Protein: GntR family transcriptional regulator
Amino acid sequence: MVIPDGVVPPLPSQRALGDLVTDVLRSMITEGKVQPGEHLKESALADALKVSRGPIRQALARLETEGHVELRRHRGAFVSTLTANSVEEVHTLRGAIERLAASRACMRMRGAGFAEMDEVLEQMKKVDTRIDPEDAVVLDLRFHDIIYAYCEHSWVQRVWASIRGQVTVFLRARNASFPDFLEVGYVEHLELRDALALADPEAAQDAIDRHITGAYERLKRLNLPAR
Structure:
């Protein structure tokens, strides 16, 4: 594994080293700087980040629990590959927690929350079919982060934080393969925003179901390996 210059950003010093290394490696994966199936060699990562192998091992172990990395006995760490099974599991888990988050957020959001959503929607409306999939992903996640922020449920927020990276990978694959963000992404998020504004938990849950099921159905069309 060769890490090109400029791929790995410098490490700030304010936080625990293991956390910093984890964040850097997670970003490298979710932003597509390392590819699915790529071998993450501890020695190369340690040299690139100018740290010992200890924080690298700690970070890789944590990223395995998040689903970003596979640790193979006697072989090392590899970037996880999208599979039909992993997509289905993350989709069903996300559906469960986001239904709950939406049903709570719609009863708690006021003007400020909807103003935040409207700001994101305005940026989505300017997206054209040539947008980089990563830019579309950033807007998509920013919108959903608002729902979780206003649900006022710390455990739901923790679960979302634990799968957000995997959702990032899935959304990037979906956007890269189906460049219809303006026609679908903007419209669906606008419908979701309007459903939340009704302050009706059932309507919010129905809107969430329609929205994330659409993305899942597109991913299923990619003919991913089963496992």
Remarks:
- Residues 17-79 form a domain with the Arc Repressor Mutant, subunit A fold (CATH 1.10.10.10).
- DSSP finds nine helices and three strands in the chain.
- The chain has a mean pLDDT of 86.
- The first strand starts at residue 39 and ends at 40.
